[in-house]
Amino acid sequence: MYKFLTTLIYFVTHICLRKVKVFDKQNVPKNEPFIVTCNHRSMVEIIILAMALYPREIHYMAKQELFKGKLLDRLFRSCNAFPVNRENPGPSTLKTPIKLIREGHIVGIFPSGSRVDNAPMKKGAATIAVISKSKIVPAAYDGPVRFRDVLFKRNKCFIQFGEPIDSTVYTAQYNKNDAIDQITITLESKTNLLIQTLKNEV
Fold first, then answer.
1. In the structure, what pLDDT confidence band is assigned to residue 11 with cuts at 50, 70 and 90?
2. Which structural domain, as residue segments, surrounds residue 71?
3. Between vectors from CA 79 to CA 129 and to CA 155, what angle results, nearest 5°?
4. How far apart are CA 115 and CA 93, in angstroms?
5. What distance in Å separates the CA atoms of residue 167 and residue 107, rounded to the nearest whole number?
6. Considering its fold, how many domains does the chain have in total?
7. pTM of the model
8. 202 and 158 in contact (C-beta within 8 Å)?
9. Where are the alpha helices (DSSP H) in 34-166?
10. Model pLDDT for residues 111-164, shown as the tens digit of each residue
11. In CATH, what number is assigned to the domain containing residue 122?
12. Cα–Cα distance between 179 and 50 in angstroms, integer?
């Protein structure tokens, strides 16, 4: 389902409408798994981020409330999403993304955990990066927050990728908890800078 939907949306947004513009894609690792993060205001950036990395697939971490009922559970899982308990995260919350990274996949996380601007950055992405010894690629989105505006208005969508944050650099300098804290601070700073840069560019 993921491959079918992303191919269809890619054809519409990139080829037919030419609505998606990607900056600094050279920052995306080519031959290794990683975590990609992005600011989160709506469902649109989830789709556009997938378009920016197409044809590579993203496995998105999503709140478990979206998976209620067999039909929705099957739908979201077929679109490469997996549920997490955001209210009471525990060790089991980390198992799936770490397994995906170790299997060579890209994991998508929205560290603010909210669609509210300036929401505080959570530590989930940094924690997963430290345990899996992987990199985080920060990204920022600017553009419409309603998908119908992407399709039927002149608004363009912009994604900018920042330089990867290598968790092993931090774990070589700090203990585990301090490394997670420092990576989270760095990620928040880089994300805010990407958001501001995009606003100045577009």
1. confident
2. 2-201
3. 90
4. 21
5. 15
6. 1
7. 0.91
8. yes
9. 44-53, 70-78, 91-102, 124-132, 147-152
10. 886 555 556 788 999 999 999 999 999 999 999 999 899 988 888 999 999 999
11. 3.40.1130.10
12. 28
